[in-house]
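Can anyone check this?
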Amino acid sequence: MALSPELTKQILDAVDAGFEDQIAFTQDLTRYPSLRGQEHTAQDFLHRELQNRGYTMDRWTIDVKDIEHHPGFSPVDVDYSNAINVVGTLRPKTEKGKSLVLNGHVDVVPTGPEDMWTTPPFEPRRDGDWLYGRGVADMKAGIAANIFAVDALKSLGYRPAATLYQQSVVEEECTGNGALAALLRGYNADAAIIPEPEDDKLVRANTGVLWFKVRVQGAPVHVREAGSGANAIEAAYDLIRGLRGLEQAWNDQKGDHRYFEDLDHPINFNVGKIEGGDWASSVPAWCEFHCRIAIYPGQKPADAAREIEDCLRHAAQSNAFLANNPPELTFNGFFAEGYVLEEGSEAETTLGRAHLASYDRPLESFVTPGYLDGRVFVIYGETPCLVYGPLSESIHGFDERVSLSSVRRVTGAIALFIADWCGLEEI
């Protein structure tokens, strides 16, 4: 049931009243350099902030043994000592409404060369409507929006009339295992919201992603006898060209996949890291390159992996040395299926009302070819997950930034959604 105009205005006004504090909170959170393996300090901060707000807290280190047999698990080859999830729970005096997960990921991608940033990436900078910093858009502003949406209701003397979970998870940028670990720990609800930087829109469908690395062995000789050796770096080029062919073949299939038919290039393949060789005057004995490729919803990661294996095998056959010395393929991160958010759910209708009230325009949806943790809720939790968040620019790039006016409206929409979906009770 829609909220009254009077209550709607009160909630949006409460969000506005607390917004400067929300910006300061976002800046504080952005100062923690929560790169992979370094997320624990940011999680400590969020644990403390949620605990001070009266949430019942759960903080744990992900144990691979607890999740590795689940079909949504992605393989890892890194230490998980600081792969820590934080969940805060608010329970009402009486459960009357529908439960909700507010989810966000605290991990951020590397900065790249810091001298290419206008200002240091972990020193957030405010300039007009924009807030700059690594992870400020993807997605620490979203985590703050989740928290301050509930704070706005509290300032009016209300709390949700259903169980609400605030989740801050890790590993979204590389495996999705953080959200999966939270689900398998028992945290699920009637709906979920993830305020990723989605330009004020709702994600309708999302690709899956695979990460893998390819290692090529060469035959090293002195460069004066280069013709008698085998250059591992140059051989890697042949394999990359083969993978580009697979990318094109998968893009040619877009007409077979609902919601992806009109995208120019839904399947993106990327060589994100390459290294090899030991000496400029030696034919390189080795080369290793790390890759990411997207897959369509409904395409199983294991099936895609077999196609990648077949592609590399075929590409190796065109190189005399590789034909007898095949490359080594390892899947070392995302092994994640894509998802479709089916239209017409009660949760989406509720968000539509909230968005219209906050933005004064209808909610739009779109399709994105990047990974999202929404797949964990939709596929494995059977939960409608609304991935919906603020306008941003240069995520994963230099001078990443988020629009503060957009964040304010998103926060208002989330607060209205909570009031409508969960209901409200007096504190």
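Reply from J.R.: I decoded it. The first strand starts at residue 56 and ends at 61.
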